[in-house]
Each structure stands twice: as C-alpha cells, then as structure tokens.
Amino acid sequence: MTTCKGMKSGKDIGAENEPSVAIPHETPNTSENTSIPIAELLLPKAITPSYYRLRLDPYLDDPASDGSNFTYKGHVSITIHCHNATNSVSFHAKGLEIGENINVTLSNETNTKTTVTSVLSSSTATTAPTFTAVYSNTTSDAANTTSGPTSASAAAARTTTPTAGPRHKREVSFRRHQRRRHVTSTTTTPVPHTTLPLGTPPRVTGRVHEQRKEMYTLSLEPALEAGQTYILDISFRGLLKDSLYGFYRSSYKAENGTKIWMAATQFEPTHAREAFPCFDEPAMKARFELSISRPADMVTLSNMPIRANESIAGRSDRVWDHYEVSPNMSTYLLAIVIANPDFIPIKDTGYLDTNSQNASSPEFRVYARKRLIDSAKYAMSVGPRILKFYGDFFSIHYPLPKMDLAAIPDFGSGAMENWGLVTYRESNLLYDPASSPMSDKDKVVIIVAHELAHQWFGNLVTMKWWSDLWLNEGFATYMQYVGSNHVEPSWEMQDKFLVYEQQPAMALDSLRSTHPVSSKVQNPSQISEVFDAISYSKGASLIRMLNNSLTEDVLRKGLTRYLNKWKYRNAEEGDLWEALTEEIREKAASSLPPNVTVKQVMDTWTLQGGYPVLTVTRDYSAGSAVLSQVRFTLDNSSADTLWYIPVSYVTQEEMNNAANSDRRTLPRIWLKQDDNKNWVLFNIDATGYYRVNYDTQNWRLLASYLLSSPPQDMLSASTRAQLLDDALNLARAGVLDYDVALNMTRYLATRENHYVPWKAVFDNMRFLNTMLRQTPAYGLFQDYMLKALATLKNNMGFEPTPNETQPQTLLRPNVLAWLSRMGDPAVVTWAKDLFQQWTNSSSPDTENPIRVDVRRVVYCTAVRSGGRAEWNFLLQRYLAAEDRPSEAEVLLSSLVCTHQEWLLITLLEKSLETGGDIRLQDAIIVWDEISSNAVGSRVAFNYIRNNWSTIYDKFGKDEFLMADILHGSISGLTTERDSKDAKEFYETNKGKFSFAELKMEQELEELTLRVDWHHKNYNTVASWLQKYHDQ
Ligand SMILES: [Zn+2]
User: Which residues have their alpha-adjacent CB atom under 5 A from ion ligand 1?
Assistant: First the structure.
C-alpha cells in the first residue's frame, strides 16, 4: 500500500507544506477492541484454510433490486484443515449478517495441498439468488460429479444447467481443471471423489459472535479430527459501505452530470472480514475462487481473469462472472471492482518482447473512467516495462496471467497492491499533461513502481504478521526508486531517495516516541500504526544501507534466494537475514566484520528505535580522528543504544584525485599530520542511516569548501543535501552550534541550483519558518531566504527552458512558492496578475492561462493576499474539476492558503461532511495543508477542541483521518500556551483517539520540543540572521 502523505514529498507545494511523514490511512479496528491483547485476537491455529469458494451478489443503485440498494448477499465455502482435534472453529467477520445455517462438513479430499475441488450451490431464476448450500457428505457428491477432469468451460457450463422451478436448490460439484497457466507452485492434480464415510459428520451445536474480537466461534459435535479436511459453509449479507475500506461504494459524474455508482474494495490490513467471513490473518494464505453477479451491462474486475460468464435463467438483466482460481495468497490481497461499462481499460501489447517467451508476459491494462482514460497513457507506458524489469531483477517472472491497474474515484490510501488488480487514487495513477504538474508525473511513476514491487514483496512472499510489515513496505519503497530509475533514468530518482524517504524517516525517528522498524504489534490499533514512515521510509533506508554495505550483487541474489524459498508462503525478518547470510557464504567474501552475521548487524537497526549520530573528532596535529556513536534525538537526551554502523569516508585530497573514482572500494588512507586545511567527510552519499557530527573546524572547512570549491570538484548533490540536513538537525537538537549549521547554508545564495539539496533545505527551513513566523525575527528570516533564492530566481525565471532537466522542472514551483511566502514583490505581482487574467476569462474551467506547474503557487498567492472573491472563485473551479483529479487537489490545497478565519472554518467543516463538496478521500489534503498557514494552525486546533466529540463519533470508529486531523491541528503550534492547551485537550479526550494515540503522543512531544527550541535557540538564530543581514 502507499500512504498518501508518504508521497507528498513529490508535490510542488513548497513552502505551503510542513514536513510530512507517512501517516496511516487504512485502519483496521474499532476503538472497542483496542485494549484486547493481540494474542486473544488471533485465530486458533488448529484450523487453517486452503481454499475459498466465494460468491457475491451485490446491488448498487439498481431500481429493480427491491430495496436492496448498496447491499449484497454472499456465500462462502471454505476448505479448512484440522491440525489438532478441536470442537470449535473460529473465523473473522465484522459488520456482516451471518445466515442461520452454518455447516461444517467433512470433505472427501485427502490431500490438502493438491486438491482444489469445491462444492457450490448454484441457484437460479430468483431475483436474489439464495446461497444456502446443501451438502451431503457421503453419497451425493459422486452422483453429481461427472467423471474425470473436465475443461473449465465445461465445468462452467455445468453450473449453468437449468434446473426445474424457482428457488430450486441443487447440488453441483465440479472439479477445477488445471488452468491454462500455472500460477502456483502447487499442482492441481484432480483427486477422485470417494464415497467412503470418513467418520460422523460434525454438527454445529452453538455459535458465539464476539463482536469485540470481530470473530465468530462455532461449537461442534463431535470434534473435528486431526488430519481431516472439512468444508465450512456460510451464507451472509453485507453493505456496500460509504467509507473507504472493506467492500465500499464510490461514485463519479457522467458527462451529462448524472451520478454513476461503482464498488471497490480495500482490505489491507484487516478489512477483508468486513466483506466476507474469512480467516483474516496474513499467514492464513489460501486460494480463492470467486464469482460475482452483476447487472448485464456492468463490468467486474478481480485479481484473476474471468474464466466464464453465466447468464441467470429468468434474469436477463443479471450475469455471473466466474473467475479463475487465484494462487495461494493472503486475504488482504483480494480485490473486486464493479463498474459501469464506461470504466474502461487502455491496453498495449507493444511492450511484449516477441523474441522472448510471451507466455511469461502478462496482459497489462490500465483502467479508469472513460473521461479520464487518456491520462492513463503514462502509467501504461511505464508499468509493463517496470513489471518486466522486476522479473529480470529478481529472476522470477510475474506469475499471474494479467496485471490491471485501476483508478478508483474514492480511495483512502495512495494505492493498494492487490495481486493482479492494483487499485489507485485517481491522481496517483493518471497523468494529464494539460492539468497535472510534473510533480504528479514523478509521483505516478514512483507509486506504480512501488505497487508493482509488492507483487514480489508482499504478494508472492508475505510477512507472517503485521509486526514485520516493514519487510513488505520497506522493500517496495526501496524498489520504487530502482524501478522508476529504470524507466526514467534522467530523473535522478536515486538522489531523490534521500530527500523523499531517508530524511523524512529520520525526522520522525528522532523523536522519543518513535518505534522500531520491526515493532511488536500488541493490540489491533497498532496494526494500523505501523503503516508509517518508519516501516516505509526507514525500512527502505535500511535496505539501501544493506545494498551499499553488502554490495548490490549480494543483496539482489540474496533476495532472489529469499523469494524462491518462501514464495506463496510467509516469512519473517530472520528468514531474509538467513538468505543474505547464505549468499555471503557462497560468495566466500563478506564486507561484514569478522564473525558477525547479517542478523547481528541488522538486529541493531530493526529491533531498536531511533538511529545514531556518528561523532568525528579530529586530532589535527596527530593526523587522526576519534569516532564515537550515540543515539540521536531531538531532545538530546542520553541513551545507551548502540548500532553496528557501516562507516565510509573520504578525504578532500582523495576526492579530488580522479584516479580514485571508485572511492568506496579503496583502502582507507591515513589523514596527514597537521592537515587543518582539508576536510574529511563520512557516510558518503548518506548510504548509511545515520547522521554525522564533526568538530567545529571540520564543519568550517566543509562550509568554506561549499562556498569556494572549484566547480568541477563540487560535492555531489546528495552529499550537499546530507550535510545541510545533518547540520540543521544537529543544531535543532542542541548538539551543534546554530551559527555553525546556518553557515553551512550560506553557499546556497550563489552556488546551489539543484533540486535535491534545495528540497532538503526547504524541508528544514519550513521548521524555522514555523518557529519564527510569530516573532520579531521573521523579517530577518524572510530577507535571508529572499537573498538565498535571488540568484536562482534570476537563473530559473518563471518559464521552463527547452532543455531543462526534470528535477529543474520540479524545483521551479518550489522556489516560486518560497519567494511568494517570503513576500518577494515580483513574484506576488506576477501571481496576482496571472490569477486576475484567469478570473477575467468567460469560461475559466476550460481556459486557464496559468501554466500547470505553477498553478499551485499562483492560486495560493492570490488566495492568501486576496479575500472572499478569490476564494469563492477557486471553490467554484474546484467544484467543476470533477474530471481533473490532479487539478482538483491543487485547487483544494490552495483554498487552505486563505488567512480569513471564517473561510478556513468553512473549509474544515466541508472536509468532514459525508457526501458533500469534498470527497472524504480529499479531507486529508485540507488537514495536511492547514498547519503551514500561521492563522490556520490555531483555527484548526480551536476547531478540533470544540468539536472533538463529534469528530470522534463520526470518524473514531472508522479511524480514518484521525491522525491527519491531529497533525494538521497541532504541528503548527509553537508557544507555551499552545502546549498547555494541547495537553489539556489530550487529557480531556483521553480514550477518544483510537488508533491515533501514538500520533497524538508524537504531536505532543514535537510541540514540547518546539517550545523548548524557542527558549534555547531563538536568540542565537535571531542574532545570526541580524549579523548576516548587516553584512
Ligand atoms: Zn506499499
């Protein structure tokens, strides 16, 4: 899954955006069960499922549906295996109406791995098919089964055999024939049915619905026998919900303005149980055979291709879509989309390499509603190439016969990697050159690469439990740069890693309230809490560190070894370390310390929270340096945590020697005696997940080198980004003098024109902006930033140049946004004039004179310096931007720039309305932006303080949005008074934060740090700014 905020880093919102970290969006459980220990919420392991025969019969807004709009009926037959005799069976279900008759019958299957026979009851000729299954254990199966394996189509045909009379239930059993393509490692050899009585059939003698545990438990008599296979049959009904997870409804407007409904799913992490009864834990993998009924004129999509359609006798208006059987997979990866026929694919087979075996090239499609389908071209052009690249990279081909990417109009997270059917927020998949900025294109390729990487990490091999979520998300996040770099080699994706992932992860990880990458998930609310920057971005940074310390070859081959060993199964962190250790052993060469294993090294990084700062203290007269490590925290408190740190370094002399091009492999050289004119630099390219602090002299040498090095010997862009981020954060934590850190930024004014270092600067300056914006020093800060940006402004201008690089295109809107925020008169006038031109247009929704890449800064400037008229004009454009999702996001985030309190409150209210002007999925945009507005912060905090009970009643149960709302309301506050108010708010509402409890703690910790910062650093920073100003 991709969380939306995790991707914000690519947006061109410059100064308008506070540093953001990935925030959980998919949230599993109601507040009622947050206090239940996880051990009690796990299903007993005496029973495991292997096969689901699932039938769903959903109704959207069908006028003939007899009042069953937005509901569905379902039936599931689950093949389960009994490992230890037991007289109870537990399964997950939440918010479903479970039918009276639950049956457990002995299956006549004997081999659990190789049989896929299932029994289903097909009902016909009824308005709403009845799903009650009728089973007879001993004789009827055989009677209804034709002999021998049959073709899939024949099997399908058999299920369509008309039967006499309405509501007639008949028994049909069919044997799944070996499919056209092998999709799993298990074979599908048909096993002959037998009629042998295998013991007395179990009877359900009682059932308990434990709502808090989201579980049903059946009592059975006699007990299930160890070693036997049974079929569990359950009928149920559910709602197509108006939330953004489970099985939910979404809508969009047709060209004529009518509302068109569709349905989609979001099951990760624990929402499959809200759609159908199941064993909803990632390690309980099974194969899924799905049938969905639909109106004859609609379409359905799922993980696998459709095997057959079946018309329903007497119901010309409805059809069954029967899907091929999935490989062995976790419940959270199942996906369904039901849509109008105008939800269409673009398809391209041009990517198929005619010289290779086409059998391994899946069909690749990108789906969107028809009005937007042209903007699916970019994803279609990069997706298949990335998929193929990964297959080669891991030496394991993508195993499914097709890959669909689908843009869903209402979508909670950024995207979801469902196997064979990846679902996306529209703005994360669709790129329209006419209405999407370059930052969106950047985001699309990254997210496409992320979700496709999951097809291996996550789908093929899955973590055993959510505590190892980082294995999925860390790898997908790491690979998203490798994959996108493959298709966009000039976009400097590898350098962007540092500012999009590592530095944001370090920001969150420098709090006391951070958590280890491999975190103990001890209660259900923590399942959703681990979907944060620590799992995603720190996880990815650790993989990158491994890649650079073990070598790329060892990592890649070790990964292939790991994937091959665990495919279609579940693995833990230790299994990965083992595969890497085996790879190193085979190579007989290790870059690890002697007698130390990968596990020993990595345990220090994954089992402990936080990260170290490496302190380098040089003895200039002896020509040596002393290294020491200590945990880095923003409150600079002591801790005895230690890490295995891969230390790399380069000296100035070494770097300037052209012969030393491959510096990493060089033997380390001695520093020269009395060498107080040359710097040393540790952690080359920031490949290690740690910060470096130096003695003041070495910092000075680095600062002056940045100012005056020969152009050809300039430190690399990622090194510049690293030095700036390290220095400013070390100063913020009080371990480096602010004077020294700020001096590192002085070269910016004359020499920095690269996106990556500027991104690091902007992220750090946002903090200073927040800290200073209500102090007398703010004018000095503005002057400093204006000076720092002046040369760049002149060089870049307002318009793109023909040959500029993609990172330069990304940089311009950021620079203009900062100039506008800092009050640059030329930029403010430019923006207001352009906006004025636009408002003069007679058809502003189709004619916009403002270039796409700078719309955000133009809109925001106009709204910030304007009043009600500008705001209303923009709101109208937002309401009319239904078919331009990227533009809609830009418009909505610009509405937050107003300084009029009543307009901000209006916007906050709208963001929390169901079915109102703002889609629920976009509420995050409003709350995410508001903290960067000096007025907005306090407005938002007052708003939640006055309305928390209402917000909690509405969203607390779903837990969607809670973390964003808290972040938006608190992260812009800075004063002692604010801190007191926020703590009081926390105490008053304790127990009403559900899964956002950890987020709330982090927000309070950061607020305390901001208050302390003011006491400790304000005067130093203000006088540095004054001194620089007077120079
Ligand atoms: Zn993911």
Answer: 1, 473, 476
Contact 572, 481 (CB under 8 A): no
Q: How close is the Cα of 417 to the center of ligand 1, in Å?
A: 7
594 φ, ψ to 5°?
A: -60, 140
Rounded distance, CA 491 to CA 278, Å?
A: 44
- Residue 231 phi/psi, 5-degree rounding, is -115, 130
DSSP E strands in 45-202: the ranges are 47-59, 71-82, 86-92, 97-98, 103-106, 118-122, 170-174
CA torsion, points 519, 521, 522, 527, in degrees to nearest 10? 140
Rg over CA atoms, the chain: 30
User: 10 Å Cβ neighbour count for 961?
Assistant: 26
Of 109, 274, 324, 451, which one is the catalytic site residue? Answer: 451
Rounded Cα gap, residues 549 and 342, in angstroms: 50
Averaged pLDDT, groups of 10, the chain, 1031 residues long: 53 32 32 64 94 96 72 97 96 96 83 34 32 30 31 36 32 29 34 47 92 94 94 97 92 90 96 97 98 95 97 90 98 98 80 47 92 95 95 95 96 94 97 95 98 98 94 96 98 97 96 89 77 92 94 94 97 95 83 86 95 94 89 87 89 67 45 73 94 97 96 94 98 96 97 97 97 96 97 94 95 98 97 97 95 97 96 97 94 97 96 88 91 92 94 74 91 96 95 84 95 96 95 82
Tokens 């220090």 correspond to 604
CB 261 within 8 A of CB 84: no
| Residue 265 backbone phi and psi in degrees, to 5 | -125, 155
Q: Are 83 and 45 in contact (CB under 8 A)?
A: yes
Length of the chain: 1031
Spatial distance between the Cα atoms of 26 and 527, rounded to a whole number of angstroms: 10
DSSP 791: H
Task: Give the three-class secondary structure for 587.
Answer: helix
- Residue keyed to tokens 């959510």: 466
Sole residue written with tokens 């299956």? 107
Q: State the chain's maximal CA–CA distance in angstroms.
A: 100
543: left (phi over 0), alpha (psi -120 to 50) or beta: alpha
List CB contacts of 823: < 8 A, sequence separation 6 or more.
782, 786
Query: What is the C-alpha separation between 204 and 217, in angstroms, rounded?
Result: 10
By the 8 A CB rule, do 804 and 816 touch? no
* φ, ψ of residue 624 in degrees (nearest 5): -130, 175
Please tell me the distance from the alpha carbon of residue 270 to that of residue 330, in angstroms, as a whole number: 11
Contacts of 630 (CB under 8 A, 6+ apart): 612, 613, 615, 638, 639
**Single pTM value for the model:** 0.88
469 Cα–ligand 1 center, Å: 9
Burial (CB < 10 A; 0-12, 13-18, 19+), residue 709, is: middle
In angstroms, the Cα distances linking 501 to 495, 550, 556, 706, 758 are 10, 21, 21, 24, 15
Please give the Cα distance from 64 to 590 (Å, whole number).
69
Query: How far is it, in rounded angstroms, from Cα 394 to Cα 640?
Result: 39
842: Cβ contacts below 8 Å, ≥ 6 apart = none
Q: Which of 926, 918, 853 is nearest to 431 (CA)?
A: 853
**Ligand 1: distance of its center to the CA of 730 in Å?**
31
Of the candidates 898, 900, 909, the one whose C-alpha atom is nearest the C-alpha of residue 932 is: 898
Ligand 1 centre from 535 Cα, in Å? 10
Helix/strand/coil for 251:
strand
Q: What distance in angstroms lies between residue 577's CA and the mean position of ligand 1's atoms?
A: 21
Please state, in angstroms and rounded to a whole number, the distance separating the CA atoms of residues 685 and 806: 21
Check if 987 is active-site: no
In angstroms, the CA 743 to CA 763 distance is 17
Strands 569-571 and 461-463: what pairing?
parallel
CA of 431 to the centre of ligand 1 (A): 20
